Task: structure prediction
Amino acid sequence: MNSMDQIFAALAHSDRRTILDIVKSNPGCNVRVVSEQFETSRIAVLKHINILEKADLLITEKEGRERKLYFNAVPIQRIYDRWTTEFSALWARDLTRLKYNVESQKEES
Result:
């Protein structure tokens, strides 16, 4: 599975998106803090964390017996850049042209 597929597969599950939200709002939190937010077992949460790690959406840092978790936005940014950058420039140009056309028509009236 390529990295883009891993990212989409990881984001497909609502619990994993919730884990990313928790870690994003609490950088450096440990697995226990995340596990407490779910009714499922700690093992189930760890499996989700491992999938997020493999997709490079979570960075873990070992500190003693604890794993600190950090959200990595880079893979999501790559997805955004892949499909929006060209379109953003196109829309910005077209909207600017439309704005000037409308303004020039108002002046002629």
